[in-house]
């Protein structure tokens, strides 16, 4: 029975982390967001709603500066204040910002948002269990190995989700009459406006695929659609 104790403790820990993370995320978003009210963007958002046969798509502004979009586990879509400010400053077009919203809608539609919360808790549980087991056999570096393995697993899962959300967004933008050009041009801008340098680390260590690979995947989709 004792040999299963680390696994049992890790499972209990993972469930507790899932419940706590869900509660904390929901409260944070409730307290620090307001509904987006931008007539120019609303025109494009309404086009996507029609394409999805929805009466309305609500988008919120999350009052933080990092440039990002977010799909909450409860299905709400958020654009950060920092990202929206870039749009107001003219660094990002309304079509490009609409492509971010389409991407986050993909995360919701494909179940990524809720699964990511569960995955996060599961990864913490796995990390704890591995650390307990490995530390018995490799004292001192067992925790480091456990952290590395779970980080690599999380990055791989995240990249897979990003490709799927990109594909969903490309289809939605095409059906909405917006097209994929803004989606691809935003990818090229993101590294510069966020200060990121995707070439500084191997692709398999990053939570998002390389820009060139994301654009290539979309262009392959477009070629496939033209044949059909």
The arrangement of helices and strands along the chain is: HEHEEEHHHHHH
Sum up the overall morphology in one term.
globular
Largest sheet at a glance?
Answer: 4 strands, mixed
Contiguous low-pLDDT stretches (5 residues minimum) are: 196-205
Number of helices: 8
Beta content comes to: 5-15%
Q: What's the Cα radius of gyration?
A: 20 Å
Q: CA-to-CA gap between the ends?
A: 58 Å
Question: What's the rounded overall pLDDT mean?
Answer: 78
Strand order of the largest sheet: 1-2-4-3
Keywords summarizing the entry:
228 residues; 68% helix; four-stranded mixed beta sheet
In short:
The protein has 228 residues and is of the alpha+beta class. Helices cover 68% and strands 6% of the residues. The chain has one domain.
Question: SSE layout and pairings?
Answer:
Blueprint (H helix, E strand, L loop, with lengths): L4 H27 L1 E3 L3 H13 L7 E4 L6 E3 L5 E4 H8 L5 H16 L2 H26 L4 H34 L5 H14 L16 H17 L1
Parallel strand pairs: 2-4
Antiparallel strand pairs: 1-2, 3-4
Helix pairs in contact: 1-5, 2-4, 4-6, 4-7, 5-6, 6-8, 7-8
């Amino acid at each position: 029975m004792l040999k299963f104790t680390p696994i049992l403790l890790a499972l209990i820990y993972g469930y507790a982390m899932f419940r706590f993370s869900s509660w904390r995320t929901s409260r944070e978003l409730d307290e620090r967001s307001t509904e987006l009210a931008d007539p120019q963007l609303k025109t494009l958002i309404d086009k996507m709603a029609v394409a999805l046969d929805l009466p309305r798509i609500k988008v919120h502004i999350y009052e933080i500066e990092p440039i990002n979009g977010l799909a909450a586990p409860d299905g709400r879509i958020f654009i950060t204040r920092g990202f929206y400010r870039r749009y107001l400053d003219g660094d990002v077009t309304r079509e490009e910002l609409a492509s971010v919203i389409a991407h986050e809608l993909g995360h919701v539609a494909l179940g990524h948002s809720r699964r990511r919360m569960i995955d996060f808790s599961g990864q913490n549980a796995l990390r704890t269990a591995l650390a307990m087991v490995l530390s018995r056999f490799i004292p001192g570096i067992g925790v480091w190995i456990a952290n590395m393995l779970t980080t690599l697993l999380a990055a791989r899962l995240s990249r897979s989700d990003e490709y799927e959300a990109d594909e969903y967004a490309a289809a939605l933008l095409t059906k909405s009459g917006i097209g994929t050009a803004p989606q691809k041009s935003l990818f090229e801008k993101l590294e510069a406006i966020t200060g990121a340098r995707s070439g500084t680390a191997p692709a398999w260590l990053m939570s998002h695929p390389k820009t060139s690979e994301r654009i290539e995947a979309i262009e392959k989709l477009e070629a496939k659609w033209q044949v059909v």
